[in-house]
Write a structure and sequence with these properties.
The chain is α/β, with parallel strands linked by helices. It has one domain: Divalent-metal-dependent TIM barrel enzymes (TIM Barrel, Alpha-Beta Barrel). The protein is 43% helix and 15% strand. Helix 3 packs parallel to helix 4 and helix 7 packs parallel to helix 8. The mean pLDDT is 98. Bound molecules: zinc ion. Zinc ion binds next to strand 6.
Length: 272
Amino acid sequence: MKRFCIHTITTKPLIIEECLIEFPKRGVTGITIWRQALEGREWTDVRRQAADAGLDVVSLCRGGFFPAKTAADRQTAIDDNLKAIEQAHALGAPLIVLVCGAVPGQSLVESRKQITDGIAAVLPAAEQAGVKLAIEPLHPMYADDRSAVNTMRQAHEICDALGSPTSVGIAVDVYHVWWDPELKQQIDLAGKTGRLHAFHICDWRTPTMDLLNDRGLMGEGCINIREISDWVDAAGFTGHREVEIFSDRLWATDQRRFLDQIASSYTSLYQS
Ligand code: ZN
């Protein structure tokens, strides 16, 4: 289970101190920390507590949301990303996942330009801190307000436009990209270009009742998770497989029992 990671948002009702106790009991070895879980805590304390619990801090979620209507608002976003870089550095998180953002009514082309400019603006600080950035393409249903980057191809194009720095790569989340006919080819390219920075898993439920908060536990839906996972591994990825589930339905259940279900679902996918 050495690659088994869970996001704190997956068990949102648990505070981070509870995650640090409960995750390792199920064989979890990595934790991705959402910034809201840090509220009121010293970042370096959380780093120590995670290490004491035997958990690698895999990444910090999330940075991004670069596009905005005004230059002042774009600067606010850049400042927030600089703060995220400080947090990641203090936590010992090697990576920040970027949900890149979009502005309803603004063209996606313009939003992608602002995303590229925003990443360029924070890149020196990220490199200085030794923190990598991962562009996470989001499913096209979020194109109007959460991310103008909706395919791996577009994420590659932004990496190219930035001059292909080694510190900027891609987070592959099966929920967002499983439908893409180019997926395997784009994963192969990400492997070749050193851009495979993270791998997120959950499942797609039919019907989906809520665009944001109705993700499924692996096995509850239609995504070919194991096949995509094999493509990612074949492309050279050796990092954690991160269970990231937003679900009002599952958050309403007993979170310790839910963690047991996650572990059982993970084990039946990977047997290791
Ligand atoms: Zn994700």
